[in-house]
């Protein structure tokens, strides 16, 4: 299917594009054409004129302007990916709150409240550049498990007799381990807006780890 007839104009500057739009009411702008051209072919859009701004150099490029970076509307994804200015301006690894308030008193500002109401409101974690290092993460997780087991052992040693009954050992050590593995998920949902469904899955994992920890203490007590 072909689009209805229309007049085609190629603008060489932003000013010329504005003049063409003013001279042709109902005209549409054409840049990449990935949205407008298919709609015209399906006759879902039928502008009387099309103003091509794809070669307007004023709308291209990436440039620093003081403390900000200007990105032209016609800048391509390839240019964005290759931009040294954007890479140098990327936030350092850390946790960021959006919208950002440097002082709690700014929360009373109507403009700040409007940004929160309109959104998005987010907690953004920026990681270091590079491929994920699963070996490092697993090593840190192993150390965390050792810490939970050490604290569990410390509590058990000061709370249970060497001849304590097996289920008593399992109950105490499993409870302490569950606190260590699982309670952090609750705080994440309260303070960091992590969905409760995610936290519940983490708590289920914590219950499994706690049961395994308790069984190990149960079978090796009092040597554990």
Characterise this structure:
The protein has helices at 14-23, 36-41, 77-82, 84-88, 110-118, 134-159, 166-191, 196-220; strands at 7-10, 28-30, 49-52, 62-65, 68-71, 94-98, 122-126. By secondary structure, the protein is an alpha/beta fold. It has three domains: 7-58, Uridine Diphospho-n-acetylenolpyruvylglucosamine Reductase, domain 2 (2-Layer Sandwich); 92-130, no CATH class; 134-220, no CATH class. The protein has a three-stranded parallel sheet, with helices on one face. Helix 7 packs antiparallel against helix 8. It starts with 6 loop residues before the first strand and ends with a helix. The mean pLDDT is 89.
Protein topology:
Layout: E1 7-10, H1 14-23, E2 28-30, H2 36-41, E3 49-52, E4 62-65, E5 68-71, H3 77-82, H4 84-88, E6 94-98, H5 110-118, E7 122-126, H6 134-159, H7 166-191, H8 196-220
Parallel strand pairs: 1-3, 2-3
Antiparallel strand pairs: 4-5, 6-7
Task: Output the keywords.
8 helices; 224 residues; 3-stranded parallel β-sheet; two-stranded antiparallel sheet; Uridine Diphospho-n-acetylenolpyruvylglucosamine Reductase, domain 2; alpha/beta; 3 domains; elongated; single chain
Write down the Rg: 30 Å
Helix share bin: 40-55%
Number of individual domains:
3
Q: Provide the structure class.
A: alpha/beta
Tally of contiguous helical segments: 8
Termini separation comes to 78 Å
| Shape assignment | elongated
The poorly predicted ranges are none
Strand percentage lies at 5-15%
Assembly status: single chain
Strand segment count: 7
Strand order across the largest sheet: 1-3-2
What is the mean pLDDT? 89
Topology order in helix (H) and strand (E) letters = EHEHEEEHHEHEHHH
Q: Strand count, sense and closure of the main sheet?
A: 3 strands, parallel
């Amino acid at each position: 299917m072909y689009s209805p007839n229309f007049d085609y104009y190629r603008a060489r500057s932003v000013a010329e594009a504005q003049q063409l739009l003013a001279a042709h009411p109902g005209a549409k702008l054409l840049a990449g054409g990935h949205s407008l051209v298919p709609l015209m072919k399906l006759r879902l859009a039928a502008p009387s004129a099309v103003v091509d701004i794809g070669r307007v150099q004023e709308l291209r490029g990436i440039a620093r302007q003081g403390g900000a970076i200007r990105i032209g509307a016609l800048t391509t994804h390839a240019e964005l990916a290759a931009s040294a200015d954007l890479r140098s301006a990327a936030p350092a690894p850390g946790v960021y709150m959006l919208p950002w308030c440097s002082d709690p008193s700014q929360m009373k500002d109507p403009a700040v409240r409007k940004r929160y109401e309109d959104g998005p409101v987010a907690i953004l974690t920026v990681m270091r550049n590079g491929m994920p290092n699963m070996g490092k993460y697993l090593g840190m997780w192993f150390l965390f498990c050792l810490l939970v087991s050490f604290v569990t052992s410390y509590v058990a040693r000061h709370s249970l007799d060497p001849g304590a009954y097996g289920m008593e050992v399992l109950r105490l050590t499993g409870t302490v381990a569950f606190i260590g593995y699982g309670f952090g998920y609750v705080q994440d949902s309260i303070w960091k807006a992590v969905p409760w469904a995610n936290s519940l899955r983490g708590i289920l994992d914590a219950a499994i780890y706690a049961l395994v920890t308790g069984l190990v203490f149960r079978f090796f007590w009092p040597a554990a």
